[in-house]
Amino acid sequence: MEYFINKIKNLLLLTSEAEDFLYSISKEKVITKGEVLIQQGDVVKKTYFVTDGCLRSFCTDRSGKEHTLQFAIKDWWISDFIAIYNNELATLTVESIKESKVIEFNANELNNIYIKHPEFEAFQRKNLERHMVSLHKRILNQLQLTAQERYDLFLKQYPDIEQYIPNYHIASYLGITQQSLSRIRAEKNN
Amino acid sequence: MEYFINKIKNLLLLTSEAEDFLYSISKEKVITKGEVLIQQGDVVKKTYFVTDGCLRSFCTDRSGKEHTLQFAIKDWWISDFIAIYNNELATLTVESIKESKVIEFNANELNNIYIKHPEFEAFQRKNLERHMVSLHKRILNQLQLTAQERYDLFLKQYPDIEQYIPNYHIASYLGITQQSLSRIRAEKNN
DNA sequence: CGCGACGTTGATTTGCCTCAACGATTGTGG
DNA sequence: CCACAATCGTTGAGGCAAATCAACGTCGCG
Fold first, then answer.
1. Number of neighbours of residue B32 by Cβ within 10 angstroms
2. Which of A26, A133, A189, B11 has a CA-to-CA distance to B94 between 20 and 30 Å?
3. Strand order in the sheet with B26-31
4. Yes or no, beta carbons of A144 and B82 under 8 Å apart
5. pLDDT digits (tens, 9 = 90+) for B132-145
């Protein structure tokens, strides 16, 4: 939590009331591998800020295949933002891929922080800008790169993620099957 | 411009200084069909808010194929946000698809508004949240839907866009070729 | 040990791409 | 006002990348 507070303080002046408020709506948690934080179909009450480890959000389609929307490592937020924004039930599941540390926020109360402590806006805007830009890049990559190229880029973006993420999760992020990714990897080792 | 100012005023109290500032960094423009507002390779100095018509942003890959990142209709911002955020040259081109009305903002000065007039933060945060959610949906659709389903959804999202957007632009947004889209359309009319 | 999780490999199918040719429509200049 | 080119959409034939279906190897663990 200190880490999170310091991140904010690097960007703006945080009153002690705002800091207290942040503490009051959050809770540090250590998450074991495989733990599910948000379950598809449930009401989404929480948003998570990752301080260590790695989580992912994914949806499951009719045929049971999983599609990974996001891997969240240190400094990224994760939740089902679609559900929160539209006030719907979760279409995504959020689970941890390895033992992780997160700060759990009550999503509604986090939404109130802007009214109570407007100085917080700048912090979230910068997170949103960063997030938006990474999504734009992802879409462009998906449109113009081959599966092979997307995989190479993925390894650059998440240099040591391979060691603890199963390949089929990477495949589901890249939009290909586990088997295709395996063949791409085999290709490279020749 | 009044339309834009009123949109803001619906969300927050706008001081007359802030309003003056907005006027000082912006310019209303009528854009003819085909006009290019941002050219790939150039420095990105402007951001646009669309009040009427339709623009699109796209990148051109090595083989010359175009890939549409965004269609911007009324109430949406459009620019090369990747370039602005990373302080790079434009990788995108922004052009109008039909005669449109936009408000052109100096991107740097728009960035200063948060310091000079922090009340503006909430407005932009909401735009960013909306934008982020639509990008999340787009990625999920791309991962789990067939080309056919993506096209159906596109028509629902942009009900009358078909009338003035050439099909090959829609195809380049959906991630398929013009010919494939044509076959999908033929399929439906049987 | 035996089971489950994960990755690989092979055979076949399929959705989409590529290349190519051909209408239909629109706009423009002679 | 017509001829012509340009733009856009369609259709066909063939090929390829990735999906599917299926089997099998390996590792770690209860």
1. 10
2. B11
3. B26-31, B100-106, B46-52, B77-78
4. no
5. 999 999 999 999 99
- What are residue B104's DSSP bridge partners? B27, B48
**Domain, as residue range, for B91:** 2-115
3-class SS letters over A8-56? HHHHCCCCHHHHHHHHHCEEEEEECCCCEEECCCCECCEEEEEEECCEE
Domain count, chain B: 1
> Mean pLDDT over residues A109-118, rounded?
93
Let me know if residue B88 belongs to a domain.
yes
Give the CA A184 to C1' D27 distance in Å. Answer: 22
Look up the CATH number of the domain holding residue B54.
2.60.120.10
B123: Cα separation from own chain's centroid: 17
Please tell me if residue B139 touches chain A, with a CB cutoff of 8 Å.
yes
Nucleotide closest in space to A180 (CA vs C1'): D18
State which H helix or E strand residue A65 sits in.
none
Nearest to A103 by CA among A6, A17, A30, A13: A30
The 10 Å Cβ neighbour count of residue A186 is 9
Whether B133 maps to a domain, the answer reads no
Q: What is the mean pLDDT of chain B?
A: 95
pLDDT at residue B60 in the model: 95
Q: Residue A126 is which amino acid?
A: K
- pLDDT given for residue A163 in this prediction: 86
Cross-chain Cβ contact A133/B81 below 8 Å: yes
Residue B190, pLDDT score = 60
Structural domain contains residue B12: yes
Tell me the C-alpha to C-alpha distance, in Å, between residue A108 and each of A105, A132, B124, B126, B146.
Answer: 9, 22, 19, 15, 35
Tell me which DSSP letter residue B59 carries.
E
The answer to whether residue A187 sits within a structural domain is no
Chain-chain contact of B139 with A140 (C-beta, under 8 angstroms): no
Q: Is A116 an 8 Å CB contact of chain B?
A: no
